[in-house]
Amino acid sequence: MNKRPPGDDVDNIIQLKQAEMASADWSNLLGHLAVKPDKRLYARLFSHFAPKVKAYIVRLGVALATAEELTQEVMLSVWRKAHMYHPEKAAASTWIFTLARNQSIDWMRKQKYPQYSLDEWSETASEPGQGEQKVLSDRIAAAIKLLPEKQAQVIYMSYFEGRSHGDIAGRLDIPLGSVKSRIRLASEKLKQIWGGDQYEH
Amino acid sequence: MNINHHLDDATLMSYSAGSLSQGMALVVASHLAFCSACRERAEMNDAVGGVLLESLDAETIEDDMLAAILAQIDEPETSIIEPQQQTPRACDPEIPMPLNEYVSGPLDELQWKRIVPGVAYYDMPWQGRGVSRLLRIAPGKSMLTHTHNGNELTLVLRGSFSDEVGRFCRGDIADLDDQIEHQPLVDSDEDCICLIATDAPLRFTTLFGKLVQPMTGF
Ligand SMILES: [Zn+2]
Asked: What are the start-end ranges of the H helices in B56-116?
C-alpha cells in the first residue's frame, strides 16, 4: 500500500496544506480513495469532514454523545463506501452530506430514508463532465450566500433542522404556500447556476 | 419513460434536505427511480446540502475517534457485505425500486383492503404523520379530494387518471398542496394504482373516510 505507481499524484495532494484546500481538492482526494484504499488520505478527509458531520448531526437535534457515535458511523461508511464515489458525479461534500443525512434520519426515525438507487444515479441523462461538479459546488456556495434572507432561512430550516413545510409555516407563522414559494424562488436561482453551467458545455 | 408531470421544486428540495416524512420521501424516491429529469434536480439539491455541510463550523471530535475507525477498518474485508448482495433483485418490474423494500410481490397479489366498491388501499408498514399507502381505483371512478392543509403526492404506477391539470399515466406525479382542488377520474381500462402520501397533520389521518370518497358507485 505504501508503494505507489509512478505518475500517481497522490503525494502532491498530500503536500497541499489543508487550509488551502478548496472543495475540488477534497473531491480529488476522495476520488483517489475510491480507486485505492489509503489510510493517510482517509485521515486527512476525516480531520476535515468529521467535525462538520458532527456539527450537522448536532443541528438536527441529536444529543452530543449520540452525535459523536453517529459521526463515527458516518465516517466509517465514508471509508467503506468510498469505492462507490465518483468525482464526476458529485463533490466530496455532497456525497458525504448524503451519507450523513441518510444515516442520521435512519437513526432518528428507526426507518430507512427512501432513496433512489445509486445505480440509477449513475445513469442520469445529462452528465456533467469530470471536474465540473466541484466547480459547481463552489458556485452554488457563492449563490447561497447571495440569497435573500427569507429564502435562506427556509433552506436552513429544511436542511439543518429537518423541518417540513408545515413545521416551517408554523414556526414562522406564515402560510404553507409562502414557505413553498420561498423555497421555489431559492431553488430557481440555484437551478440557473446549475443548469446554466451545463449548457455551456 | 415518457413523463409529463414532475415534482415541485419545493418538494424536491425538502427531499434532499431530509425533511420529508417517510411516506412523502418514498413517493419522491419512487418518482426519481422513473425520472431522470427530476433526478438531475435532486442532484443539485444534494449539492446544496454538501455546500451547507461545508459551511458549518467544526464541532469538537473526541481524539480517539479516528483511531477507533482505523481499528475497525482493519477488520477483514469479508465482513463487509455489499448491499447489492443482500437483496436479490428479483423484483416485479412494475414496482419502483424504493417501493420494492416495502411491497413484496406483484401488486395484484397484495392484501388490498376495500373502502367502497371499486376503491381499495394497501398501507405502508409505518405509523407517522399523514397517510402513506397504495390506492387502487377502478375505471370510471372519481376521487373527491378533500381540502386539507398540507402537501399531497400521488404517483401513478398503473393505469391513468385525468383531472383539471391533465392526464396522469405511469411515472407521472401529482404534487399538490391546499391551493389546488381537483377531482381526478380514472380513465384507463384497467384499475389505476397509485402510491400516495400526505404530510398533513394528525387530524387528517382521523378523517380516514374523507381521503377517498368516490363520487360514483355508491
Ligand atoms: Zn420528474
From this structure: 65-73, 83-86, 97-100
